[in-house]
Write a structure and sequence with these properties.
By secondary structure, the protein is an alpha+beta fold. It has three domains: 5-44 and 70-221, Phosphoenolpyruvate Carboxykinase, domain 1 (3-Layer(aba) Sandwich), CATH 3.40.449.10; 225-295 and 386-587, Phosphoenolpyruvate Carboxykinase, domain 3 (Alpha-Beta Complex); 297-378, Phosphoenolpyruvate Carboxykinase, domain 2 (Beta Complex). The strands form six sheets. Strands 1, 4, 5, 6, 7, 8, 9, 10 and 11 form a nine-stranded mixed beta sheet that branches. Strands 12, 13, 14, 15, 16, 17, 25, 26 and 29 form a nine-stranded mixed beta sheet that branches. A five-stranded mixed beta sheet has the order 2-3-19-24-18, with helices on one face. Helix 15 packs antiparallel against helix 16 (573-587). The radius of gyration is 24 Å and the shape is globular. The structure holds oxalic acid and manganese (II) ion. The site of manganese (II) ion has 2 residues, from loops.
Length: 588
């Protein structure tokens, strides 16, 4: 498939290490994928779902000890510990290679080694990058074929270049004690052992497109971010693009596929989805920031997805989708998950593979982190620019988190530097859905805490440097909070499609079409400028959730002071000044 010596040499090493019985190159053809699907149905790895209800869809169950990303077993293996920084686990690369090779040695015996050439980003795009993943799992092959562009054409475009990421995945024994997800940013290498769960084994996603790519972006002058990308089309047919970062469980996929309120739809407003999880952004020839979604599908959380919460995500799963760890309906070969609808199967099988009656059981049918892997092309609102090799120009960057009080519905940072401050202090409160105390504030800078492949202090500096290069062409930076609670613990803002009202204010600010009030934290909307048409929502309540509470923010500034201490000398002086300015502004 290729004469690229760097690839062939590495594959020889991998073969010698892993000792497979067979070697199969993934060429990207539908015939080959179809044959692999049939093979995994025969082996029980996949269950074919009802062809009429869900054409070309399959169900897979992982081992019950292997259902989520394992941050405590994820390592950045840079030569110097300092380069992994205070927010990552670090392991010395030599020690890590030895340990991982010892674990993986001979582990493909009796198995097939699949070689997957894949592209993150449209093939041939100057913003795209290639990788090769070797794996002993057909499930990984079939998921990678949805989530990335795979096959011969990737190799053709790569030619003899050495600019590709090496990914070794081995299921080994799915042993939790020997599970490791290791990134070697200086070697463009990822090694993942003893897992079969998506986020740990689809190496194009978090491991490459965020951890390795963030390091590449730092070196090469671009950005790899944990951001959705959406386009907002106005009634004149002009589309403005927004990239937005939120920690998990803050509705990223919902925002990416938002359906505007009826009155805005009637006026001709539309939302177009470019991506729901990752953005790669570079400065284009025109000096603006241009973004691509490096992925080709959605790896979304199933529970909570329904016709009301996210019609477009649900529609995306109706064909060519792989479901993982959801419940199965034996009567009609369908899938089910909590809050899909009020009609769980009686004759079902739960995510653990046990008989399950959804009408009577108190157990959950689907794992809370059960997933769908769906082709992006299925999405009814997928952007016409989805495959664009140049990407889309970004007008606004939005940060957000779940804050019951404090953070207003929306505010704009004073400038790029202040926006980096806002992103670097991003926080979200833990919910009852996760174990541990409820309402605890967790700082998750730019939603990159588990995904930044190098020292986060250097990462902040990189953001500041990008702003200097972009100058007055830099996107405007905003912060949103859909999650303000009233005294009874109810959400105040309706969220979902109504978030479009906030997006419209953001775009109006980018176009200098609307004034705003300057406060200590940034520019806050005048309540009259958030359109409440057709919404049963009072201006007083809106004023409440737009208010900047001086006392609460003074406390927040103290917490940020603590948060910043972690970064020591690596904290850019600009951010220290930003914090001082915030304190001064609040004291005025
Ligand atoms: C994801 C995550 O799966 O952020 O996208 O955990
Ligand atoms: Mn994510």
């Amino acid at each position: 498939m290729t004469n690229n010596k760097t690839i062939l040499t590495w594959l020889e090493e991998m073969k010698a290490l892993l000792n497979p019985d067979n070697v199969v190159w993934i060429d990207g053809s539908e015939e080959q994928l179809e044959q692999l699907r049939a093979q995994s149905v025969a082996s029980g790895e996949l269950t074919k779902l009802n062809e009429e209800l869900l054409p070309d869809c399959y169900l897979h169950r992982t081992a019950i000890n292997d259902v989520a990303r394992v941050e405590n077993r994820t390592f950045i293996c840079s030569k110097k510990e300092e380069n992994a920084g205070p927010t990552n686990n670090w392991m010395d690369p030599q020690q890590a290679y030895k340990m991982l090779y010892d674990i993986a040695r001979g582990s493909y015996a009796g198995r097939t080694m699949y070689i997957i050439p894949f592209s993150m980003g449209p093939i041939g795009s100057p913003l795209a990058k290639a990788g090769i993943e070797v794996t002993d799992s057909i499930y990984v092959v079939l998921n990678m074929a949805i989530m990335t562009r795979t096959g011969q054409k990737v190799l053709d475009v790569l030619g003899d270049s050495n600019d590709w990421v090496r990914g070794l995945h081995s299921r080994c024994d799915i042993d939790e004690e020997k599970r490791y997800i290791c990134q070697f940013p200086e070697d463009n290498t990822i090694i993942s052992v003893n897992s079969g769960y998506g986020g740990n084994v689809l190496l194009g996603k978090k491991c490459f497109a965020l951890r390795i790519a963030s390091y590449q972006g730092w070196n090469e002058g671009w950005m790899a971010e944990h951001m959705l990308i959406l386009g907002i089309e106005n009634p004149q047919g002009e589309v403005k693009y927004v990239a937005a970062a939120f920690p998990s469980a803050c509705g990223k996929t919902n925002l990416a596929m938002l359906i505007p309120p009826e009155y805005l739809k009637e006026q001709g407003y539309k939302i177009w989805t470019v991506g729901d999880d990752i953005a790669w952004m570079r400065i284009g020839p025109d000096g603006r920031l241009w973004a691509i979604n490096p992925e080709n599908g959605f790896f979304g959380v199933a529970p909570g997805t329904n016709e009301k919460s996210n019609f477009n995500a649900l529609a995306s799963t109706k064909q060519g989708t792989i479901f993982t760890n959801v419940a199965y309906d034996k009567d009609n070969g369908n899938v089910w998950w909590e809050s899909l609808d009020k009609n769980p199967p009686e004759n079902g099988i739960d995510w653990k593979g046990n008989p399950w009656n959804g009408k009577t059981s108190s157990e959950k049918g689907a794992h809370p982190n059960s997933r769908f892997t769906a082709p992006a092309k299925n999405c009814p609102c997928v952007s016409s620019e989805f495959d664009s090799t140049t990407g889309v120009p970004i007008s606004a960057i939005v940060f957000g988190g779940r804050r019951a009080k404090i953070a207003p519905l929306v505010y704009q940072s004073k400038d790029w530097e202040n926006g980096v401050f806002v992103g670097s202090t991003m926080a979200s409160e833990t919910t009852a859905a996760a174990s541990g105390a409820v309402g605890v504030v967790r700082r998750d800078p730019m939603a990159m805490l588990p995904f930044c492949g190098y020292n986060m202090g250097d990462y902040f500096q990189h953001w500041l440097d990008m702003g200097k290069k972009l100058g007055d062409k830099a996107p405007k930076i905003f912060n949103v909070n859909w999650f303000r609670l009233d005294d009874e613990g109810h959400f105040i803002w309706p969220g979902f499609g109504d978030n479009m009202r906030v997006l419209n204010w953001i775009i109006a600010r980018c176009e200098n079409k609307v004034a705003a009030q300057e406060t200590a934290i940034g520019y806050v909307p005048y309540s009259k400028d958030i359109d409440l048409t057709d919404l049963d929502f009072s201006i007083d309540t809106l004023n409440d959730i737009l208010k900047v509470d001086r006392e609460a923010w003074t406390k927040e500034a103290e917490e940020i002071t603590e948060h910043y201490k972690k970064f020591g000398d690596k904290l850019p002086t600009e951010l220290k000044t930003q914090l001082d300015n915030l304190k001064k502004g609040l004291a005025k």
